[in-house]
Amino acid sequence: MKTLFFLPKPRYFLSLAPLFHTFANPNPNFRRPPSHKLVNRPPPYRHWDLPIPNPRQTLNPNPNPNPNPDPDPDFSQADFSSICALLTDPALSSGASLEDALSRTGIKPCSGLLQAIFGHFDSSPKPLFTLFCWAVKQHGFESSETLFNFMVGVLAKSRAFDSAWLLLLDRAEAGEQPDLVSNNTFSILIRRYARAGMTFSAIRTFEFARSLDSIRDQDSEWSLLEILLDSLCKEGHVRVASEYFDQQKGLNLSWVPSIRVYNILLNGWFRSRKLKHAERLWRTMKKENVIPTVVTYGTLVEGYCRMRRSERAIELVDEMRGEGIKPNAIVYNPIIDSLSEAGRFKEAMGMMERCLVSETGPTISTYNSLVKGFCKAGDLVGASKVLRMMISRDVAPTLTTYNYFFRYFSRYGKIEEGMNLYTKMIESGHTPDRLSYHLLIKMMCEEERLDLAMQVRKEMRVRGCDLDLATSTMLIHLLCKMRRLEEAFAEFEDMIRRGIVPQYLTFERMNNALRKRGLTEMARKLCEMMTYVPHSSKLPNTYSGDGDASRERKTSIIQRAEAMSDILKTCNDPRELVKRRSSFENTTSVADRLIEDIKRRANKT
Fold first, then answer.
1. For the chain, what is the radius of gyration of the CA atoms?
2. How many C-beta atoms surround the C-beta of residue 158 within 10 A?
3. How many CB atoms lie within 10 A of CB 538?
4. What are the start-end ranges of the H helices in 175-306?
């Protein structure tokens, strides 16, 4: 069922200070977030040391989520804050009530204002759709192509494809700002359809797009075909992509596919772990005299590395040299990543040396592969050495680099170290991304640090990262576990209001917990909310509806086992053991033995 939005209706501490520079704070207005008051500072024991570059050289150095980096903005911060407050107001539901509230503000919307707001609420499709439709009705408002595509993407992400198409067709057929509907718009829809597993709809979208005059020119049409094939392959539908490719070749005999199309299909077969199909396509390419590029060999190398055949990948590097194609980071990166994942760090560093003498040299992805491998192996010292190597070669760490450290801290439950790294990131001018917050909240939930998790959640929203399905789900489950059901219900209600459909498992847990606590009215409202959204009613096989009963059974088994163990240590009389053992047997086993005894006597007679 599709969603349609209708508006009218042994533990040790590490000092993480070396991860960042130690000179003056570039942001004098920075105030430490309140969540860090809950964290004890690690002792000044430095297990490893690392120089860190100036944050101005790194990715996204602005620590404040300023929605308007333009020094001469076309909207005010007050307008931005007013609309954000309305979108987060739980008393305002999406649709007419929110639209009326927006009209009462007297704000004149512009494309830049909406674009800044969209960046903060990209996981709240319903309020954003209301905001966009309200803005379109205002006199003098003109949407930009970027904003329009953002709106289509938000709707498609929440699988509200009907609303996305209504928006698209309205612009395409009305003749108002027809340039808003571009190749990029259809690319967004195609990718979202493929991700949702709706392959036929993705193909129909491409067929519709190629029928439009604006897309019909040769370059746009074939680039959109490449996007279609790439989307299908990346989402595991490589067989559908291959069949459609063969169909297009049969319909247009004069068409000579580009090498990019073959690279996409090769990558698709490897991603699906279909080695025979990939090798068959490679032989076909050679038979049809398709000239491979360095990207082709990079795809082959990455595919063999994904299949854990690193030796074959290394052979391909020598093979491409024989054909006069010089390997670069595209080829070396997958090998280094594969060797690092396998813990073969000596060989990985040897391959890094080969990469250093290539024309392009190692990239940030090369170093990140090594950092990821060391962190996965639990070798934080090795990861720090790679960071030292990066910086000495003028390669600045990115958020991806730091997220591998967050993964390490999350995996080993090192909350203090993780929060210390988070603090240092902000103080040094870095802005954590959604994955950073996701890993932090995951770590807090696993360690049952609810108050700290809620503080990080608050900071996440302040810094412009909207809560997605995964983050909200983790928080609700922890709130239920800690018996804070009113807060869990408010979080669940907020998800529905923003257009995010909770998992059925989340609903089932909350419903059971509310009824056990006697909160029947709240449970009734919960069930009523779920009836208005499309959802699956499947539960994982590991789910146990009665968690308390399950824990009681486990406790009872452990207690009986411990009691029997104590008896075995002290009792030497076999008859006494038999007598004691019978007292631990359950009624089912006793009944079974009685039935067997009756059958045995009946047979004798």
1. 30
2. 24
3. 10
4. 183-195, 199-210, 218-234, 238-251, 259-271, 275-287, 294-306
State the DSSP code for 206: H
* Count of beta carbons in the 10 Å neighbourhood of residue 524: 13
What does the alpha-carbon distance between residue 302 and residue 270 come to, in Å, rounded to a whole number?
Answer: 8
Selection from 568, 480, 491 nearest residue 519 by Cα: 480
Per-residue confidence (pLDDT) for residue 42, from 0 to 100: 38
Burial status of residue 411 (CB atoms within 10 A of its CB: 0-12, 13-18, 19 or more): middle
Q: Which amino acid is at 3?
A: T
Of 186, 265, 194, the closest CA to residue 223 belongs to 186
Which residue do the tokens 């009681």 mark? 552
- Residue 85 CB neighbours (<10 A): 12
Q: What is the DSSP letter of 216?
A: -
Start-to-end C-alpha separation, the chain: 66
How many angstroms separate the Cα of 278 from the Cα of each of 233, 307, 325? 12, 12, 21
Amino acid at 177: Q
The residues near 119 (Cβ < 8 Å, ≥ 6 apart) are: 67, 464
Token pair of 376, please? 């996965």
Task: Please check whether residue 580 is in contact with residue 569, taking contact to mean a CB–CB distance below 8 angstroms.
Answer: no
Name the burial class of residue 288, with classes exposed (0-12), middle (13-18) and buried (19+) by CB atoms within 10 angstroms of its CB: exposed
Reading the block at residue 147, the tokens are: 């904003």
Phi and psi torsions of 565, nearest 5°? -65, -40
Spatial separation of the C-alpha atoms in residues 340 and 188, rounded to whole Å: 34
In whole angstroms, what is the distance from residue 231 CA to residue 244 CA?
A: 13
The letter for the amino acid at 77 is Q
Q: Rounded to an integer, what distance in angstroms lies between the CA atom of residue 436 and that of residue 425?
A: 11
Secondary structure of residue 537 in the 3-state scheme? coil
Cβ pair 486, 477 in contact under 8 A: no
**Residues near 275 by Cβ (< 8 Å), separated by ≥ 6?**
269, 303, 307
Structure tokens belonging to residue 89: 């107001």
User: Measured between alpha carbons, how far is 144 from 166 in angstroms, rounded to an integer?
Assistant: 18
Q: Residue 231: which of 270, 259, 190 has the closest Cα?
A: 190
Q: What's the pLDDT tens digit per position in 363-392? A: 899 999 999 999 988 888 888 889 888 888
* Rounded Cα–Cα distance for residues 312 and 167 (Å): 50
**Nearest alpha carbon to residue 352 among 364, 362, 338, 337:** 362
User: How far is the C-alpha of 569 from the C-alpha of 44, rounded, in Å?
Assistant: 49
Cα gap 530→363, rounded to integer Å: 47
What gap in Å lies between CA 193 and CA 490, rounded to an integer? 31
224-253 pLDDT, tens digit per residue, is 899 999 999 999 999 999 999 999 888 888
Q: Lowest-confidence range among 22-31, 370-379, 533-542, 547-556?
A: 22-31
Sequence-distant (≥ 6) Cβ neighbours of residue 228 within 8 angstroms: 190, 202, 203, 206, 241, 244
